[in-house]
């Protein structure tokens, strides 16, 4: 599930045809502006991973089914594999790398470690980006709600009960 | 023998690589920044049987950014026919004896027939779609129904390691002696591992030296496999795999892609990243085969087994006799005079099936434990009581005593925690609103895998009192870096925060691929050996040194704790010893030689599984409400990570029971499901809270620390406990996996 939010493509500007050759775009990621040349077909996920060396968002399926690539665009969580990088111009992208400074992890990052809410760690950045958002949105009221709202993020190691424990712990701190 | 006081081993410490994983800093094999990277896309065959008659690559080659289109005309020949040997053997471990893109034959859909290499991932994918491939197609055989009449009994299966037939006594006589018999045929959909990280290899040549970043369960296995297939010396290949995004058997064998990535990188003279797509993960790394198992049990009125017959039919590839060893533990874990187990295979248009979590046991124990539930029902016995009446303290196949068991305690403590006592055995008697409620149980057993070759690790202590312990094993979610720091700390007599485990690189001492739940046992053995060898070296050095306060002390009486060697009132720290003697560090290599395969013990890990289900009386929906598993995995190295792995295994059992299925389209020979939207795995909403009980048993046979492993036992028996609970809830025996709404409605 994802929250409703504004459409990614701004409607108030005149549409200019770009591509199919690489075009220069500017992406604001974790508060830093990056200029990069990408073909219009490049996904936000591949732009992050292959062009900006931000590999925290993971490619699990590249088909929008697993949630491992979950990032925020203007604070709203999106699947970066189904989002074109080009459409993120003028929007603020937040990835796991920008969630908290390295020296001071987000409470949910701490809780994931403490509750052993992962094993291989590959789905973990996506789980955390989803979980932080759902707590902020008030969708972590009880376990049934957490289960439902976190079911877009597959954990093949099946750390689900521990993921719920970590989310509960942070929910109850705040 | 000097001593330390174990304090770290077993503690539920947080993962040492936890912050690397939660912050996104952990780098997996597709995430190594290398300048000038090119991208390889594997083109798979559209047909499942026949041959490729031509590939017109002109349109693809004309595309911007395309560096090469490699087909059998342009890709080099492999140096040697791949052998099929399980990666546990510690040798080269290609997943099948067939290597693609060498001739025009098509054995299975998705079989690689070409590689497209381009300067971006998008361009490689796009150009691949422009290839015009022509085929000569023949009708494929892929399903049980198509292959049943073609079946044969193989002499051996599983890379030659397991006989196709095993017997004791006379099963026909045993069935004649029986007062009661039950007979059931169980069918299983094929399963795909689907780790969240698809397989990936990044290959980089520097002259004749090859560097591979590979998502693998064994970096050495990748090194040995690529060395043999490319015909280049081991000394020229280095494989790194620090973080691996899950495997579950899909990265246990070294399938074609690492070798193809190396070939592609050589062809274009640039580093190449080959990342399989999710769809390709269904046709590139093996799978758990579709299968049918028949179990026949005979028993006396008192519930003593007189005969077990366990037969299996499954498809294998055109080139290998492979079946997961489902017919194994059923011969071992219950006292029964007469046993027959046999495999039948037929040639099908698939790649060779492979290991998938609890390979064999997850499916074989399902059939056996459902059959026992049925027998208990027939006899009016409690399912646990029936198992206790057939309990054996020896391996029923060899007569050798178990090296350790703990199974009785697993039944007792599991039943106690679950609240099994007082269960009304009558099916269909509990109802809560629309939901029919039932409970079920099953035994779990998973063999302690026999190892073939020495396992090594290296320990280095620096003069500042910190230590690094090294072994060439990757982390694919097991927590190996954490638990081995714990083992090293106790071996050296250091605080665990002073020990770092370095791994995932073939430049480090050799460890076989961590498969078959053997990783913790063999790596801890090597690490323990290295750490204690280094401790002995340092203690011996101190007591022989006139400058040391420990001079002349009996080394046996020296105790080391927190890096301080103490004998009576005299003491000296490791740091003081090294600094005083002007040594920047000290180092030792430890080696563990596994026990011989004919050791006179049965080596098995045991557990007991319990599940409660709710079945919607009208809609047939099955929800698992709670699960308890009690396991006796020998020594537990870290209670937190061990519990997590066992819990994950139990939830895999839930997936096996209710969700996970793939089927071949009989007409096209393609998998019907090839995405995570179609191949269902448990999601958060499917997963109940899971209660894991650890029962530690001492075992001085399996390995030095008595570690039997936790990677797979968690899954074994879960699907049976759930199926038995479904019967208890509804009165219906569903002999198909997964159990779906269609079966119950």
Helix-strand layout with pairing:
The complex is a heterodimer of chains A (174) and B (745).
Chain A lengths: L22 E7 L2 E7 L5 H8 L18 E4 L2 E4 L12 E3 L12 H8 L9 H13 L6 H7 L10 H14 L1
Parallel strand pairs in A: 1-5
Antiparallel strand pairs in A: 1-2, 3-4, 3-5
Helix pairs in contact in A: 2-5, 3-5
Chain B lengths: L2 E2 L13 H5 L15 E7 L5 E7 L1 H4 L4 E5 L34 E2 L5 E7 L2 H9 L2 E6 L6 H4 L8 E2 L4 E2 L1 E4 L2 H7 L2 E9 L11 E7 L2 E6 L4 H12 L6 E4 L15 H13 L3 E4 L15 E9 L5 E12 L21 E10 L13 H19 L3 H7 L17 H12 L11 E3 L2 E13 L7 E8 L4 E5 L8 H13 L6 E5 L15 H25 L15 E3 L2 E4 L2 E4 H7 L4 E8 L11 E13 L5 E11 L6 H20 L31 E5 L23 H13 L5 E2 L3 H4 L1
Parallel strand pairs in B: 1-24, 2-15, 11-31, 13-14, 17-18, 22-23, 29-30
Antiparallel strand pairs in B: 2-6, 3-5, 3-7, 4-6, 8-9, 10-18, 11-16, 12-13, 12-15, 16-17, 19-20, 20-28, 21-22, 21-27, 24-25, 25-26, 28-29
Protein name (chain A): (2Fe-2S)-binding protein
Pathway (chain A): Alkaloid degradation; nicotine degradation
Pfam family, one (chain A): Fer2_2
Task: Characterize this entry briefly.
The complex is a heterodimer of chains A (174) and B (745). Chain A is 29% helix and 14% strand.
Q: What key phrases describe this protein's structure?
A:
heterodimer; A: 174 residues; alpha+beta; Ubiquitin-like (UB roll); DNA polymerase, domain 1; 2 domains; five-stranded mixed beta sheet; 5 helices; 5 strands; disordered N terminus; B: 745 residues; Aldehyde Oxidoreductase, domain 4; Aldehyde Oxidoreductase, domain 3; 3 domains; seven-stranded mixed beta sheet; 2Fe-2S_ferredoxin-like_sf (chain A)
Question: How large is the radius of gyration of chain A?
Answer: 16 Å
- From the 3D structure, determine the CATH topology of the largest domain in chain B: Aldehyde Oxidoreductase, domain 4
Which stretches of chain A are poorly predicted, pLDDT < 50 over at least 5 residues?
A: 1-6
CATH class group of the largest domain in chain B: Alpha Beta
Shape summary of chain B: globular
Counting H and I runs of at least 4 residues, what is the number of helices of chain B? 16
Q: What is the multimeric organization of the chains shown?
A: heterodimer
